[in-house]
Amino acid sequence: MPPLKRSDLYTLETYAVERDAFRARVLAHKKRRKLHLGPHITLLFEDRLTIQYQIQEMLRIERIFEPDAIQDELDAYNPLIPSGRDLRATMLVEYPDMEERARELARLGGIEHRVRIEIEGHGRATTFADEDMPRSADDKTAAVHFLRFAFEPAQIDALRAGASLAVAIDDPRMPLRVEPDADTRRALLDDFA
What is the pTM of this model? Predict the structure, then answer.
């Protein structure tokens, strides 16, 4: 997927008019791209539309309209758009209770490095966590991580040919494995060029 450019974005004025309709479209789109690995871990697989929404909201909230500042936002968010050979996801570690969240984030230190995508008969995609900056300390993890799953061409071909796909956490502290439904699987396959 090509990176976003300034010309792809709404101006603040246009976004104010279009926001409700655009937001509804993005939220419907995100439903197909969201995968709950369990009650406390969710992956949102990003693409050009989800990232445009994030940028538009940031520009709106911060009232950013200067070209250089807009470019800074594009530079920060464009790395979250899949390249055509990978999938990119925001990983959310969600505990509504503050005390439980603090306790679990401490218990799950490094969990972001244990998330896997398995391709039937073709091993695992290579996982990279938080390439932009570390978000965990030795004694705890963060509530939000950015993951990139790099695929070999043969793995992509196998998925296109119908091989099953599973997302797993390979860690005894939270062993989880989920196969996306057909709708989510199709959305993810669309990310490969």
Answer: 0.91
Q: Please tell me the distance from the alpha carbon of residue 154 to that of residue 6, in angstroms, as a whole number.
A: 35
Sequence-ordered alpha helix ranges (H) in 9-124: 12-31, 48-62, 67-77, 98-107
Strand order in the sheet with 86-93: 34-36, 41-45, 86-93, 144-150, 126-129
Question: Is residue 59 within 8 Å of residue 25, measured between CB atoms?
Answer: no
- 3-class secondary structure, 112: helix
What are the sequence ranges of the domains in the chain? 6-31+48-80, 86-189
User: Which residue do the tokens 């789109």 mark?
Assistant: 29
Tokens of 1: 């997927």
Residue 34 main-chain phi, psi, to 5 deg: -105, 130
Specify whether the CB–CB gap between 111 and 173 falls below 8 A.
yes
Q: Which two tokens stand for residue 7?
A: 């010309």
> pLDDT by residue (tens digit) across 62-116?
999 999 999 999 999 999 999 999 999 999 999 999 999 999 999 999 999 999 9
pLDDT of residue 1: 82
Give percent above pLDDT 90 in the chain. 93
